[in-house]
Each structure stands twice: as structure tokens, then as C-alpha cells.
Amino acid sequence: MPVTATAIDPGTSRPRSWWGWGYTDAHPDDAECVEMGALLPGTLARPLPIPRVADLSIGRPGVTPPPSLAHLVTADPEARASHAMGKAYRDVIRALRGRPGRIPDLVARPTADQEVADLLDWAGEHAVAVVPFGGGSSVVGGVEYRGDAHRAVLSLDLTSMDRVLEIDTVGRSALIQAGALGPVLEGQLRPHGLTLRHFPQSFEFSTLGGWLATRAGGHYATVHTHIDDFAQSLRVVTPAGAGTSWRLPGSGAGPSPDRLFLGSEGTLGVITEAWMRLQERPRHKTSASLAFTDFRRALDAVRALAQSDLAPANCRLLDPGEALLSGASHDGSSVLVLGFESATAPVDDRLAVALDLARAHGGIGEAPQADRGTPADEAVGAWRSAFLRMPYLRDGLARMGAVVETFETAATWDRIPALIDAVRAEVGAAALKATGHEATVNCRLTHVYPDGAAPYFTVAVAGRPGDEVAVWDDIKAAATDVLHRHRATITHHHAVGRDHRPGYDLQRPAPFALALRATKSALDPHGILNPGVLLD
Amino acid sequence: MPVTATAIDPGTSRPRSWWGWGYTDAHPDDAECVEMGALLPGTLARPLPIPRVADLSIGRPGVTPPPSLAHLVTADPEARASHAMGKAYRDVIRALRGRPGRIPDLVARPTADQEVADLLDWAGEHAVAVVPFGGGSSVVGGVEYRGDAHRAVLSLDLTSMDRVLEIDTVGRSALIQAGALGPVLEGQLRPHGLTLRHFPQSFEFSTLGGWLATRAGGHYATVHTHIDDFAQSLRVVTPAGAGTSWRLPGSGAGPSPDRLFLGSEGTLGVITEAWMRLQERPRHKTSASLAFTDFRRALDAVRALAQSDLAPANCRLLDPGEALLSGASHDGSSVLVLGFESATAPVDDRLAVALDLARAHGGIGEAPQADRGTPADEAVGAWRSAFLRMPYLRDGLARMGAVVETFETAATWDRIPALIDAVRAEVGAAALKATGHEATVNCRLTHVYPDGAAPYFTVAVAGRPGDEVAVWDDIKAAATDVLHRHRATITHHHAVGRDHRPGYDLQRPAPFALALRATKSALDPHGILNPGVLLD
Description:
Chain A has 536 residues and is α+β, with helices and mostly antiparallel strands. Chain A is built from 16 helices and 18 strands. In chain A, the strands form 4 sheets. In chain A, strands 12, 13, 14, 15, 16, 17 and 18 form a 7-stranded antiparallel beta sheet that branches. In chain A, strands 5-6-10-8-9 form a 5-stranded antiparallel beta sheet. In chain A, strands 1-2-4-3 form a 4-stranded mixed beta sheet, covered by helices on one side. The longest helix of chain A is centred in the last third of the chain and has 22 residues, at 378-399. Chains A and B meet through strand 8, strand 9, helix 8, strand 11 and strand 16 of A and strand 8, strand 9, helix 8, strand 11 and strand 16 of B.
């Protein structure tokens, strides 16, 4: 397979941005940026220019691969620039300000396990750091190299390994290579009437291997919230050897081998393929939304729903700010978006019970008269469109010098109300202190559990021109601190990467830290795999 | 808390058997044993006598605890004998033949974390093996010591740590000490209207810590089949220090710390307490059974149910032999036992859809007219009673010189029919070769998944008098071999212990084996924790 340096999306042939979210043809134009900026007092009058790779100082690679591996590796500046960072606000603004993270020396695109193993062998011998790279949509500094402890940095791009290799229609499973982007793998499953149905916001720009390595959250709001449960077996190539777990529907033979690599973020090995549990496409769907004048009562409604066995596929609660921004409400009410889906039986009864439950806690809303598209359902569609557009708008606001980012967490229900209040207050205060401007801090619940929920926060404020990274780091430090004091996880489904290390180190139990360090030494004896992520 | 040497059940005040299953007052008497033996050609004419502790040669302990720990430790022969083994057939017959496993030198009953840590410190300094012990119901050699690499053996009985320490009614969770037996913890939850609803066959005789350490299977046939999903946070005391994971409903911060200790079987640390996710008691229940003249079609029916989203709480398929033995059918048909339960809404509709699905695959059965106890429901009750009585009957048959044991596994659906056929044929052949008698090999499916199922096999055959252990070991070797060739797990929910090591070592992926060994060295540097389990 030839090495392609330009970032053209393999499925759509649309150009991918090297510095910002998604497709360049979906980026807001300058006029739109100005329009958005006007909503945030204190932002720039004109957008920052779109950064160009040619303006970066990209040196010669500090290492040369052996001839046997040369065909897998490129030193092309575009390729290297587009593998330098993920897609957090912090990454985008660094690119806009011409101060990206360390550019990798080389980008490798292996096409088979053996090539991955060979690259790891070579890197281990030459003290080359290896940063596994899927779709590059990390928002936690998971795909960049920091520091200078290694002689060179190799970005290991898995997207040339993107095939569905085998399908078991009896047991509804498929063996899929880790580098397949969401649409690429779904496209190969569709002819078989099957689907993985894992739809993170980054679906178009993230890979199966990335989802597994970061324990990604999908669109299911309940029960199977993370990709973890859909992994039947993993193949992992480590510097100390490769291995594949058996395809098993369930097992009690020792600690789960797969659960050690799920969430390992490329620090213990490279996930190269996985047998995944699939589903039939849903034949029955329904959705509705309810308004709440009181956010606390809406929280109670969501808790009641999460503690029922109704298992809504969608159960998203938008606070008034979030509902306003997405167009789901305009009167200051909170909005609960409910959705049910099934390949087995109609779901109208489940929605009816759910609506009754929500109304008992003050929810206001009609049952939809039919399937999607009814008036009661408008908030659902409005919210979905806004959801997919959000990262593009974030980048547009970044061009206006704004500081706009999200972070998510999870905590038990007893802590949720105080946690949300505290985040609003303390993160807002930190933003004000850092910028002199009032910040918008909105909240939605994205995934809910019988014992707790996952609040997702959005912060937007005008930055100090040129100092946006420092402003965000101050705000993020305040967020980390408030989450820690409320015993809320540093991340529900965005992974740890390098940006979440301070919070992660505080919450990880000491015996598990010892176990992880010992495992790292055993599997990655030269310490080349994604250095700085999860562990030092 | 005083050390009690006699094994009186704390909840019921009924006497516990030191050598066999459960309560001694529930053991079949001699006449019943003879009656059962008559059903298996070749068994003894009269039952083996009930073994007495006084007949064992129990030496003086090879080690003396320091005065500071003496009050936690006993060398009482009854206590030591009852902690020498688990409750597998292999254990029972060894006791009956007067050849139990190595008797531990001491039994300790700590009442607090610090005492556990102190005992581990002392044991580490003096090369004393520590075998964590909950209810002692292991059927895989998980609670005995084998070999002589250690100076002495301490059985660490956790059942004095049996309190529910804290209840969060908002998030429906409880902090429970690991030594609480099933009825002991449910009794403390009941006044709060909450339940863990984890009902393994050993419910009365196993502890929360044992369930967590072995990834026990509960009564839920679908979705939450193992205890794993109900663990919110674990506290683990290791020789290298203690730690507690945060109470989180979900998290994506690195690999799950809890999943490393779930299934660690006392080799990495001692689980001393856990926050567990609870449920309301179900308000709606219904069940029904269907008969199938064709087992293969019954398998298809179960697969269809498992791949639906109906989530039956009970979905057990009994093959003709199993159905006959339990009284669920007498005409050679297979029986599918279905049950639904909910605290939210009536479940009759879900049962109706399920029955339709099963009938479409040849199932014959009426919908129940009302709740439990209707004629259509008789098979359910018959099977449940037989289920709880089974281990007692096994011991009665053991006294007649029979070899009677179960083993369970799991595999993907594409492998299930051939796997079940192969186990029947090969295990039957091994039993015939070892004994000269035709064996009964029955099968039921206990837990089912969209991608596979967990078959549970029962073997019964007359043994060679005095050589029953060797006979069983031959049969088990054949079972291990056939499971391995069919890539079926060595255990779905009975754990690995020492008995399943040959199968476990074959199926564990090499990188995970390296990780586990490294973790063991880091957390248990003196190698005192449950030596021989999972690892050498």
C-alpha cells in the first residue's frame, strides 16, 4: 500500500484538516467566525488566519528507518504536521498560534501485524518513541509527544489497517482491523445487515482501535455506554510479543485479559484487530423530548429513568444554557431528550412508561404521535445537528481568540447536584480570573446509570490574546481540582492522555498504579510506547 | 470478636459440614444414598461413612503467630479441617476416603483491614502461604494449599467481616464487607428495600469477597451475568499496600482498576470491602416453560432470545437428561425455562414476545394465565428446587462411590452445537474407559449472550472403589482437552483455582500472562498469596 501524505478521508474523499476538527469544507468561514465571536464579549474583531504547514519549522527527521521498513514510513511535512497533535481546543489554538506540539520525526502506516511488530522492534533498539495514532481525534493530548527523553518520535498511523476481515453472522460478530474509521467499518458491515452501533461524536474521525484503547463512549446513554462491552476479543502487539484473547461471549477465567488493554491508550501495546459484538439495525425507533422548569427536578427524573429497566438508547439532559445553544428550547427550561430503539419489538410502550415517569418529576411534553419528525420531536433533531456541528464551531470561535472547550466526568447520584453547582461556580470563577470576562459554563448529562451520571460541561469565554493556552490551562486546573474534591472521575469517556494525568494520578488506587507500572515494564521494556500517557 | 472453631452458620444457626456441601441437617441420610446409588449401576452397596475430623492426622502447626496476632488465629483441628478444601466433588471424595488436601496450620479470622494487613506482613516475613477463604464453596481447588514450598499455611477466613457498613439509597449502593455470606448481606439490605440480587447456587455458602474474587455468576441469565458489573468500587489489601477505587458509576480513566482484581482469586490481594450496586426488589415477575422435541431447534430459540433485547432474567435450557432429572419433563423433550422480572413495569408483554419467538423455533408451551404457580409454570418450580438440592445429592452419590461432578464453559454460538456433542461423546468415552460403566452426561445452558452461551455439564458414573479421584481426574482431563480444542473457556463462572490451571494456561494470551506475572511480583513480592492459583 503506498504511503499517502495528504489527509484525504478514505471513505468520503473530502479533505481533512491538519490543525482543526474534521473536514476543511465544513469549517465555518471568516464571516461565520465573526458572527459567532460577536456573541462572546471580548473576542477578536477578525479571525486568526488558518495556519499553514509551510509556516511551521519542521526539521529533518532525527532518525532514519532501515531499508526493510522504509516503504512504511514517510517524513513528508504535511503528514508529520497532521500527526503532531490531537483535536482538543488546546491543540487547535496551539496550531492557530503557530506553536504546535513537537512534530513527529516520521509517520509510519503499517498494513499488517508483522509490520507493527517490526516497527516496534526497530524503535525499541533506537530509543524512538512510538505514538499510536488512529483518527487523531484525541482531546486529551493522547497522540502527541512531549519532552525530549527519546531520540526521535514515530507516529504509528493504523488507518491502513481498516478492513473487516471476517463476519460471523450466527453469533453476530466481526473481526475488524483497528485502523478502520467509523464510516469505513460500518460501510463494510452494512451489506450483512449488521452494525456495531458505536456512535461517538468523533465517529467520522476516529477508529476502532482508538475507541478500544480509550474506552470510548458511544451513543447509548444507558447499559452499554462504553465500547468495552462490545469487545469480544482483542489482538495486541506489544514490544514483548503479540497475543490474541479467545472469542468468548463471557468468561470467568482469571481477570479479564481484554480489560487490561481497554483503556491502556497505546502504552502497553498496539491493538491491531478485534472481534466485535454486532447488532441488527433497529427496526423500531421513537423519541421525544420534555421540558423542565426546574433543573433539579429534571435530575430526579433522569435518575428515575436510569434506575428503571427501560434502558433508553438516548437519555440526554440539557441544562437551560445548553438547550438554548442547541436550539432545543428558548424559554430557559432544561430539555430531556429521550430515545428508544429495538430490532425486536415496538418501543412505544417503553417510551410511554418513560414519559409518565418523567412527567411525575415535572417534565412537560407530549408523547409523539408517530415516528420521528413530529412536532414534539423537534428538539431531538435540533440537538443532534448541533451536536455534530459543535467541534467545528469551537474551532471557529478559537479563531476569534475565544477559549472554548468541553470536559466530562461521572459521579454517583448523591454527588451530582452539588458537583454541577460547584463546577459552574468554580470553573466560572477561574475563567473570570484568567480573562476578566464572564464565562458561559453549560452542562448536559450524556450517559446515565442506576448509580450515577456523566455530566458533560462546555466552557466558553474570550481569551487573553496570545495567552489562550495559559488561560485554558488555568481553567482546566480549576476543573481538575473541583472534580477531585467531589470524587468525580477525571474522564468518563475522553481518556487520560497527557492532559488528564494530574487528575488521573490522584484518583488511581495505589495498588493498581503498582500493577500498571509493573505491566508496563514487562510489556514495553524500552519504554517507547506513548511515553507520558497514563504513566511516566 | 472471639474465634469460633465450630462451623455454625451465623445467620441460621444450622451446622455446616466440614467435608461436604452446606448444612449437615440437609444431607441425604444413608437410606436416601442407597436409593440414589441404585440408579447408577456399579456403585457401592452401602454408603461410605461420614468422615470425622478426629480420624484425620492433623499435626501441630508449623508456625506460631506473634502475641499481637494470636487473638485472631486458631489452631483448632475442626477449624483447620473445615478450611482444608473447597466443595468440589474432588474435595468431597478425598474427605470421604480419608485423604484430604493439606490441612492449613492455622486459621485466622480478621475483623478489620489493618488486621488483614498485619497478617500479610507477618506471613510475608515468615514464608507462610496465605489462602483467602470466604464461604469455602470453591469447586476448583481455590481454597486449599498444594505443595510444600512454604513453611506453613494460613487460611485467611474473612467471614468475621460481614457487615453492611453504609447505604446510599439515592444511588442504590452499599458498602459491604467482603466476608458477608449471601443471606447475611441480603438480610442487612432488606430493611432498606434494596437487594444485590446475586443468587449463585452457592448463595448461602459463599461470600461477597468470594464472588468478586472469582467473578461469580448470579441468577441473571442475560446482560449482567457476572458479579463484575455490580461492583462500583473495591478495597483491596495487598502485601505492597492497600487501596480503594473511587465510587464511580462509569469511568474511562485508564484500564479499569477493579477489573484487575475481579477474578484475581486472592493471588494479588485480599478484597476486604466493596461498594456494590443494588436494586429495588422486583414488583413484577412472570415465568413460563416450553418443551422442545428437538434440542438443536431449542438452541436456535435460545439464540433468538439472547439476540433480542428482551433481557429475560431466567433463560435456562435443559437437555432431555437434565429435564428428566429435575422433573421438568418426562417424555424426552428439552425444556426452556423463561423468567422476567422488573421493578418498573409489568413484564407480561416481554414474556409474550419471548414465547412467540420460542414457538417460532418449535417451542411448545402456553402463556401462564397469571403470576407464578400456574400449571404452565410447574417446570420452573421443579427445576428451582432440584437446582438447590443438587450439590447435596452429589455428596450422597459420592458416598455411594459414584463420580458426580459438573463443569461449565462458554463459547460463541457458531461453536455451541458441535461443542455440546463433542463434550457428550468424549467425556462419556473417557468415563467409560476409566470405569467400565456408561456415564450420564447432561447439559443445560445457564447464561446466554447475543454472541454465545454458557453450557453447563453434569457427569455421573460409578467410580472405581478407592480410585474415584483418579477416575475424575481422567474425566476432567478429557473435558479440558475437548474444551480447548473447541476454544471454549475453561470456566464461565467457577473460576480457575488450581484444578483449572492446565486449561487456563493454554487459553490465556501471552502478553496478559506477562502482565499478570509482573503484577503478582509487584503486589505480592514474597509470593505468599494463594500460591498455585492462576500462576506458579
